[in-house]
Amino acid sequence: MRILITGGAGYIGSHTAKMLKEQGHDLLVYDNLSTGHAEAVQGLPLVQGDIADGERLAKVIKDYEITDVIHFAASSIVGESMQNPRKYYLNNVVGTISLLNTLVACKVERIVFSSTAAVYGEPGNNSENGLIEGFVTAGVTEIAKQFATAGQTEPLVLNEDCPLKPTSVYGQTKLIIENALKDYSRAYGLKYISLRYFNACGADDSGEIGEDHQPETHLIPLVLQTALGQRDKIVIFGDDYPTRDGTCIRDYIHVNDLAQAHLLAVGYLREGNASEIFNLGNGEGFSVKEIIRTAEEVVGRVIPAEVGARRSGDPAVLVASSEKAKKLLGWKPQYSELEKMIVTAWKWHQNHPNGYSQK
Ligand SMILES: NC(=O)c1ccc[n+]([C@@H]2O[C@H](COP(=O)([O-])OP(=O)(O)OC[C@H]3O[C@@H](n4cnc5c(N)ncnc54)[C@H](O)[C@@H]3O)[C@@H](O)[C@H]2O)c1
Fold first, then answer.
1. Closest of 273, 282, 267, 266 to residue 326, by C-alpha
2. E-strand stretches of 58-109
3. Which of 83, 246, 250, 253 falls 20 to 30 Å from 287 in CA-CA distance?
4. What are the percentages of helix, strand and coil residues in the chain, rounded to 5?
5. Rounded to two decimals, what is the model's pTM?
6. Cα–Cα distance, 284 to 291 (Å, whole number)
7. Ligand 1 centre and the CA of 213: distance in Å?
8. Choices 3.20.20.80, 3.40.50.720, 3.90.950.20, 3.30.2310.20: CATH for 2-121+164-351
9. How far is the CA of 39 from the centre of ligand 1 (A)?
10. Domain locations in the chain?
11. CB 86: neighbour CB atoms within 10 A?
């Protein structure tokens, strides 16, 4: 049994590869290094290649006797996807369909796919009752009502049954693959698990691998780069939302908790269970100001911040319900406190202020 990890030189892939190795799994990283880093693949076999190169991939699958695939490889910057959709349809859709065809041809039977909360889009408020339109589904209703009773129009705990209305090309490409997986599973017997991550953050406790995206678009690394003096200030996009401190609330999930879920997903399919879709989030939600305040406590200095205009389409609150993953996979996140997430990220940023390229 050997697992192929596409995109294993990237942020989440490298943490998953490290954890799989530590837990005794055989694996191989397959990555074209377009946004990944060879240094992130510590002591693990790495083949440099593209998911769309079917011939090369088929040879690798045969040579290494691959039985399972965890598929992280993708382009994943929302803003870029709107400006350059061709890149996203080519890499995330055409590339992944090519990968699926290779897996079917090589008789690989299981795949775990990196999907995203972006498949849900940006739900709007229904001002009549303070609930989010279309999101008052089983399991969500009670939570939504509590928010409404508290005088907030913000709800949002998204479960897997919520409507799928991606507003970005990036989200759209991931949804296309979720749907393709259903069809490939039905027609060719390829078993899959699609994992919809919310905002990945943090780094491995070792401080040796972490988040190094160019350009960086994620809040926690931007805040920590500001703490390191690499940016002048952090801009808060709006502080007049109906939330506890006026800034947007999002769900952050530690990268090692995501890694753990991938291990469980592989095991779940190997046990013969049916294909599934799971949210992976913390279920709690932290505001932009809470992130900055906690980061200040962790780094022990003031982090310059400035309030700017709202970004269009930013919902006040987006929080995941991960009850299904906890129940079916037995997933137990270990890094749910914001402080833990930021402490691990800070260790990485301090050790590698310029990312992998320079220590
Ligand atoms: N980071 C997040 O918060 C987040 C949230 C939701 C979903 N995701 C998804 O998780 C996955 C990993 O995200 P990440 O943050 O680690 O991104 P990343 O850019 O750090 O990693 C992606 C990896 O895939 C490789 N890659 C890209 N295209 C390839 C191709 N055609 N062939 C081979 N390798 C290729 C890159 O070189 C890189 O190593 C992505 O699919 C992303 O869409 C990430």
1. 282
2. 68-71
3. 83
4. 40, 20, 40
5. 0.92
6. 13
7. 10
8. 3.40.50.720
9. 16
10. 2-121+164-351
11. 8
Which of 46, 72, 84, 279 has most ligand 1 atoms within 8 Å of CB, for mutation? 72
Look at residue 99 and give its three-state secondary structure. Answer: helix
Nearest ligand 1 atom to the CA of 200 is 3
Helix (H) or strand (E) holding 171: helix 169-188
**Residue 236, CA distances (Å) to 125, 195, 240, 311, 339 in order:** 22, 29, 11, 10, 20
30 is catalytic: no
Tell me if 266 sits within 8 A of 228, measured CB to CB. Answer: no
Q: What is the pLDDT of residues 219-276, one digit of tens each?
A: 999 999 999 999 999 999 999 988 889 999 899 999 999 999 999 999 999 999 999 9
CB neighbour class for 149 (10 Å; exposed up to 12, middle 13-18, buried from 19): exposed
CB 277 within 8 A of CB 193: yes
Cα 20 from Cα 313, distance rounded (Å):
38
Q: Which residue(s) pair with 253 in the sheet?
A: 200
Give me the numbers of helices (H) and strands (E) for the chain, helices first please.
12, 17
Q: Tens of pLDDT along 95-150?
A: 999 999 999 999 999 999 999 999 987 664 433 333 343 343 334 444 444 444 44
Q: Region 196-201: what's the mean pLDDT?
A: 95
